[in-house]
Amino acid sequence: MAESHGYDVSIDWTGNLGTGTDTYRTFSRAHEILAGGKQPIAASADPAFRGDPARWNPEELLVATVAQCHMLWFLHLSANAGVIVVDYSDDAHGVMTMDERGGGGQLTEVTLRPQVTVTDTSMIETANALHGKIHEVCFIARSVNFPIHHEPHAQVL
Question: Whole-prediction pTM value?
Answer without folding.
Answer: 0.89
